[in-house]
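Sat 14:20. Reprocessing the chain from the morning session after the first attempt stalled halfway. Input below, unchanged.
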Amino acid sequence: MPAPFSEDALADLTLLALVIAHGADADLDPREVDTLATYLHRLAPRLSMEEVVEIVKEGGRAYLDTRVEGAETVVYRLAGALDADGRAQAYATLQAVAEADTVLHPMESTLLRHVAAAWKLEVG
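Finished this time. Tokens:
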């Protein structure tokens, strides 16, 4: 059974999702935010949706203060915090958020490939 996602891991995942969803195309579609909250809640069903929304809000504040180098640190910190199944679930979350607005920007694809490589995931 995969280890549960800690609140720190959820916060890091939120930050990465925002880097990919907004940082790639300077647009954050409400569908991306809704998808993020839904997936986070699935990863941590012990949390209420209100607690998940607060994690997303905190992630948004952290995103505003993050530089590219900081995002890179988060990629590796999250990789170390999750087992292989957790990394796969986290990647699926990132991909779902990037695709939520029905347009996968080339930079979103590039960032997703980078995360997959850093996490040693086989993605198609």
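Residues 7-23 form the longest helix (17 residues).
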